Fold these 3 entries.
Entry 1:
Amino acid sequence: MTIAAAFVAGAMMLAGGGIAYADTLVVEDELMVGGSSNLQLGTVACGEPRSVTVDLVIERGGNATGGNAGNNTVFKEGTSAAISKVSVGAGASASDPTVSSVAIPAGWYATGDSLSAGQSTITVTTSTAGQFSSTVVYRASGTNAKDGERVADGSVTVRWTVGSCTAPPPADTVAPVVTLECPSEPVLRNEPATASWSATDNVGFASGTVTSGTVSLDTSTYGAKTKTLAAGFIADAAGNTSAAVSCNYSVTEQDPPVVTFANCPDPLELVMEQEYVLTWNATDEEGGSGLATDATGTITIDTDVYGPGSVTAPIARDNAGNESAQVKCEYFVDDVTPPVVNLTCPVGPFLLGETVPDAQWTASDPSPGSGLAGADSGSIAVSTSSVGAKTLSVPAGAVSDIAENTSLESNVCSYSVVYDFTGFLRPVDMGTTFNSVKAGSAVPMKFSLDGDQGLGIIAAGFPKINRYTCGPIPNVDPIEETVNAGGSSLSYDPVTDQYNYVWKTDKGWAGSCGTFTLKLDDGTTHTVNFQFKK
């Protein structure tokens, strides 16, 4: 709606004896009363919005020529006039003019035209019953023809009637309240769980609105959790939305940690005194509570004891208090070291055919070991059936241990068997006595070996004579008996049980001394001293 009303009737001023018309700001309307406009809106419904738009116009009231050119009520040509809202009465509101300034054109003094000063919208209040009026004042201000200030005000009065009016109920601005309740007891990890919620409102909810229910909880990981319903989860009938709400819950778990050995094959076979260190590892499943105890460690196996054994890894515990099952590593410690046998022979020499004690052996299993499977000692018969140097040993495999290792051949012990040689017999003297004999004669060297031992009793290369220059001889015994012989020879007389070695001396030995040495095949040597005469 556009309503025109005229502001301020033209004023007549005297200037230089002539008549000048003032410039005025008018609100165009069909009704003009006493220099102001009246706008009748009639009766409006209670609460019904009502607005009107008015046009603002600067209207030239006359001309100002000649001596009247400096009229102080006329806007100066070539300047501009500012357009503003001055005041608004009670019960109404008005917008600022749509034009903030208007240019005053050349020739303004002589024209009778008007200038548009924009529009303003007036809105009246209709919330209370009764008759009302409100005045809005607008202003055009600028420079007058005398370079002074020119101010022109224009107003419009709006009148209206509001019929019977009942105040509307106050708007609902209270948000609904949501209560969220989480489980008070811990819930199991990866098991379904819910929190309960309910909503209340001071006025109520739209028909069909769900005001209670459950929401799922995240149980994928262990620990303290928070469930939140975001702001706006539910709205009431007035469109008010709920605030965010949270509750706390905890997730526990019943899956125990798992303990394994990293280096415990089946079977685990070890050797005694072998150093072997087991490594164990403990793990808790992904998303679980995590380990409260060590995650890894080592155990050194005792390999000093033969046979089967086992070690147990430590029990692992997680932060939920679950404990791992007992885990064992079973093994077998083998003994690969054979028993040791030591043999001791009786001390000789022994006479041919003599009965002597047995050689004794002892056995042991080196420590640590599995232990002997049989006797730890024994004996071996010592034979004197022949003469000479003898050796004995316990053969390999004679002794075994519990691990079935068998002994190697024992150490070798030795003894000797000799003839029962009692010395040279008459006519020869033994000891330190020198037997005086004519060089070139044959001397009967008689001896007994306790029986006929055959004629091969003399060692090869014997007898021997070791001659040397005679020195002082304190003890000389002439040989009373010599024999005629072409050379040396050996014989045995079973009647006398005597051997007779006829030893043929050399004439060239005359004037010297010598030692006769007879070595038997039993390894013994027997000597006699001689002095050789011419």
Entry 2:
Amino acid sequence: MGPPPARADGLGYPGRPPAPGECRLDDHPILLRRALELHRRGDTAAARPLYEAILRDRPDHAQAAYMLGLLHSSEGRPAAAVPLLALAARLRPDRAVAHEALGNALHRLGRAGEAEAAWRRALELRPDHRRLTRELADLLRAQGRHDEATTLLRQALDAGADDPALRLRLAEASLSAGSFEAAQAAARQIPDGVPEKVGALRVEGDALLRLDRAAEALATFRRLVDLAPGRWDGPNGLGLALNRLGRWDAAVPEFERAAALAPARPEPLVNLSSALDRQGRLDEAVAAARAALDRDPDLAEAHFNLGVALAGLGRDAEAVVAYDRAVDLRPDEAEFRFNRSHCHLALGDLESGWADFAFLWSERRMRRRPYPQPLWDGGPVAGRVVVWGEQGIGDEVLAAGLLGDLAAASRGVVVECDPRLVPLLGRSHPDLTIVPRRPEADPAGLAPDVVCQAPMVYLPMYLRRSWDRFPDHAGYLTADPERVASLRRRYGGPRAGRIVGISWHSANRSLGRHKSLDLADWAPILSVPGITFVSLQYGPVDAAAGTPVRVDPEIDPLLDVDGFAAQVAAMDLVVTVSNSTAHFAGALGRPCWLMLPRTRGLLWYWLMGRGDRNPWYPSIRVFRQQSQGEWAEVIARVAAAIRDG
């Protein structure tokens, strides 16, 4: 932001040389007139000593102070300008230009608070000053005060300043403030045919992406590309919208085009690495992330994407280095630490892995249940603990294996869980208080002797600090024995052979595609003779029609969890992909063969396996992909193992 042009009329003096009888100076009309003429001609070296001479004789000469302050500011000496402009503003407090110029100089010195005060005073005197309104809004946004910026800009627009530049600033500030609908509305009000329309389309597209309206964002970014084909943010926005729509193959060339249009900007390459990663093109994703770092070595997102791709390749030690750098640059970014924790656990470094978990579940970051007690610190408890679940039902089943340890470290445990788990946990832990989770806190968890609380996912950090803390258990959940026996009779019979339960799909929205198989892919397993196959799949099971897989209409794994546990316990063997079925089988101690992807799609507890075993569930045998996405050889190995008995 440059200073206003040198002028003599800002403080009430004529811009032209004063005519006889018109000069308002008592002592120095000729000297001032000569200084102004030299200043207007650009001969600041000659003008400066004249202003200084006036001020030596008249230290309270407002116009000389103002003009000399402008001169210093225009020549890059804001520190010298500030006292002169402050003097001018003090002597002529009713002149907006003095306060504006003072704010300009203060802003250059990084004295944002004082600059803001000066600019606000200038706007009080001249509320229709659009350029200064934009400058003040930019200052507020630079400090993260986006709501204040939107208020300032909206007031100016409501006062009648129908200025496309102000409206674009409003759209940008609303986007930064998280008011995505307001950002889109402001951007749409900018008419076609004005220069600001380009920026308006960019903001509108970004807002639509944040509103999860990717198809509309795609159309908006296409308009931006048509209007400004040489800008990089158009194809970059197209790529982001295509990514959101799952069209990663179409997103890649858009990011490549954006990177070519902006050879110095790293953002398109960061986005390119993400799109390549989604397609499983991991070596290319690594290359794109490294190229982004060549453009900006301190871009945290590029280090993070590099870590994601390296971890996908199974290069966990290298991924940790990349994540370390990302965390150094953005220490409060939870996702960076979450991913790094996975690599630490995969490498067997429990201490470092749990340290990242501790950060993620610190009191200021976690979504707390409405209990007033402090978080459990891992030590002995002179009272009871209320434990609550907040993840999926499989995670709660896994955490149930730690409740006995917590009970031993305290005087009792209140377990607030998914209501569907209450019968199963109550039977398995009769010494604990099991209550269903509801929106409000349960009275049992508010009892006077309940002195601390913990989310279930918090427990491993303290109760499984080292590998020798993992017990070699035979199961810790107890299914209803009568229902188990009834189901065994139903599925059995003289020709039933072994009863094998199978589950082939994960409903996890982000990882399910990496973990799931089509039931048709199971043909080598389902063709093994002498086996009664029973569906343990939750959700739709239409795929089982026309196959040898038996679907029991009396068991709904989603609604009747206690019945589902009995069904799992009735199996001779469970074969499943990574989903809640695996957790139930392992927690019930049933033999389970778990088919896992190589790297992508693994949740943290499966990363901790050693060989074909997993420390959480001794009854589980792991069959892992040799190559990411290749299930055929896994299916073949499982089929052969079933034949071998």
Entry 3:
Amino acid sequence: MTQTTDRGPVHSTTPVLVQGGRRAALVACLVRGATAAGLGLGALAVLVMVVWISSPYPDNGPDGALHIAAGLWLMAHGTELIRTDTLSGQPAPVGVVPLLLVVLPVWLVHRAARDGVIPDPAERRPRPSPRGAICAVSMGYLLVGAVVAGYSRSGSPAVNPLSALVQLPLVTVLAACAGVWTAKGRPAGPLPKWLPGALRLRLVRTRVAVALRAACAGALVLFGGGAVLVALSLVWHGEAVREAFPYLSEVWSGQFTVLLLAFTLVPNAAAWGAAYGLGPGFALGTGASATPLALSGDPAVPVFPLLAAVPAEGAGTPLNWACALVPVLAGLVIAGFTTAAAAPRFVDPALVWRNRETALTAFLGAVGCGVLTAAMTAAAAGPMGSARLLAFGPVWWLAGAAALAWSAVIAVPLATAVRMWRAGPGARVRRWLPRWPGFRRGTGTAPAPATDREPPSAPQPEPEPNPPTSGPPAPSVPAPVPASVPAPAPVPKPAKAAKAAPEAPAEAYDFLPELPRVADGPPHRPDPPEEDRDEEPAGPSPDRPWAAPASPWPQDPDPVTPADPPAPPAPAPKPEPEPEPKPKPEQGQGQESGPV
């Protein structure tokens, strides 16, 4: 290579996004947000255009169909629309948002923000900060939203500018925050630093997390029960539901459109059913309401399949009153979630929460359930027109207060009572419950006894009873003593009756081949032959000394019997004492004197 070639421009093979740095990453997030908005708007536009093309006599041209698509896209964000082509000529607001339609834009924004922050395994491109990603994705999405809102102001239905200015940014930013949170692994903390210290300390406590779970579970049961009530009412009024489709449209394309609209309003109907079961019910126009007690006022109910499930006019019946089971079940669920954490089953009473903490946690769960119910009913209601149709749906603050009252009245005393039972009488009852045969905690079988010893692998024969003896007691056999230590001579001691030596403890591996015992252990006695196991020999025998009359003299062992235990070792002979030396006699004592 030459020097000129070495100094030439370097062509990088890395992507352009990396060369731009973090600024290019923010631009990429901006493009992702605009793409998400275009995808949602395009999906609704395609659906509306297909219905418009399949309609045999459309009311307007393609421009009207595009205005409807833009209005639906804005309504999916909670924006209120205004109908200008009414029979009376007065503009009529449409504020009942199909809640199932909200899923589409929320999912698209969530996905765009998540993909913009998720780390790259190859690390070939930079990633923006979480705040930068939220701002960039939201800005790109809102730019498209501003264009759509400006286009919708000139047609019918038209967008309410104030509602679009509030609802569109709110939904977009919340969905982007959820996407970034998902990309970071859904962390539970840390809490924002701008919160007061005391509040942050209270929020991280265990009872707050338990109360949140209980509140979500109670709200889920509440709205699930409302959906069941609506389904049962639709089946009960099946004839009116079938008549609503041909009344609204005589062609299949129009009826299919009505079916799609009813499907997107199913979550709204569940919220209405939950409010009906709670007691406040829902409004059917100004001055008219439907509750389990009665349908009061002059309802203004448009012809629609879901509205055919509205109860008939007049006083309520026991079937209407039975709807109160829905909030009762929600309260029981909140109490169950609270006691599962405050006083679990079969736990040490010392680990159980106090009554005050249990009651406070259940009450917090009831408050959370009331807040969720109020938010859901507020989103499911709204105006459907002018004059009498301005109030349509459940009243959010009445529904939230009723959910709080039902949950608190049921969950707080029930959770406290269960806690007191499990920490007091329940703990004493559990002490003798496992003693029942066939009973085990939570499974219905008796628990295995806890023991430190290993159970024997093979059954051991039971020791035979000692038969009565009539002769003098047999002398006791001395224990074997090592040869290095002299043992004293055995001295027989009389006893009342000969006692059988206790059997050695069962070995854990007695099914293996027999091995010789250690030197200091007792001698091993082999098992009797197969032919002698069932029938014991009658009469005295050498290996059964207890069956013969006791004798003071030891019996001679039979050398032929192989089962005879080896004779104990003979005691070591006692060393004889050395003779003491005799004293020498003194001179002159006991000795004659010799000749001089």
